[in-house]
Amino acid sequence: MTVRLIAFTGRGEELARSLGRELPGEVSRCGESLPLADWTERAFREADGLIFVGAAGIAVRAIAPYLRGKSVDPAVVAVDEAGQFAVPLLSGHLGGANDLARRVAALCGAVPVITTATDIRGAFAVDEWARRQGCAVRNPERIKSVSTVILSGGTVRIGSDWPICGTPPEGVEMADAEPFDAVLSIREGTGNALRLIPRIAVLGVGCRRGIRAEELETAFEDLCKKAGICKEAFSLVCSLDRKAEEPGLLDFCRSRSLPLRTFSAEELQSVPGGFTSSGFVRSVTGVDNVCERSAVKGSGGTLLVPKTAGNGITMAAAVRSFAPDWRWQYG
Fold this sequence. Notes:
Layout: E1 3-7, H1 10-22, E2 26-29, H2 36-46, E3 49-53, H3 56-63, E4 75-79, E5 85-90, H4 97-108, E6 111-112, H5 117-121, H6 126-132, E7 135-137, H7 143-151, E8 156-160, E9 172-174, E10 182-184, E11 194-198, E12 201-207, H8 213-227, E13 234-240, H9 247-255, E14 260-263, H10 265-269, H11 279-285, H12 291-299, E15 302-310, E16 313-319
Parallel strand pairs: 1-2, 1-3, 3-4, 5-6, 8-9, 8-10, 10-11, 12-13, 13-14
Antiparallel strand pairs: 4-5, 7-11, 12-16, 15-16
């Protein structure tokens, strides 16, 4: 987790720097040379967690203009300058603010002030579980429905494309057929179930020089639609090293907040497995297939969607191994 801390007083700055060394995190002091609004806007965009060392009200007013939704907002925690209380203010489960507050509390001897109902009652929190399993949430508005059933003493039915290690927590049962309350899958589906999407897919890309981000986006949309894969499942884009500075590819990755990783032709050619081979591609790049080999290389897993080609773009998808379990509580 990338953490940014800001303090408003000398005493608060001492605490912030102490926390920043342990978390670790970048520390700033609010003042004339650093307006709070500027710091908050940048931190909200670049960091996974924000810690305000000062009054909770200041933090609330500072973050208000930048709120987008629980599936994308960073964790926000307020801790008083004396280090007595650590209060998660935003994205307690999906963003990890509850856990961040607990970490802060452990470091400075504060009391973590956790207010989410599932935590207070020790009940299964499906959004916390999703985060710990490395999942994106397609429809976060459905989290409330699942939690309401559990908090009322009911049972939710969860379907999964993988076996889940361990014993389901109280209020949860595994289901083999619809209706589901929640589904763990990278495949597109129908119905109103909460969609939990493991971010285990890697996109391999080969492209002509001067490709535009819009063209790559269209090709990506087509690949996902034809294969029936959720776009949220992708966590990495891979390609040949000569594409590391390709503007259109970099723009595409930025627009989807996906890191780009590249490999040499020699590295790609040495990847074991059966791939769609092209003598022409090898004569130009030094490797017989860029998209499939880079996807498999980057994932360390298996090819899921073989090479698709068109308009000077080749794409393929591979997936990492995934072994979910029922652990979800802090610690």
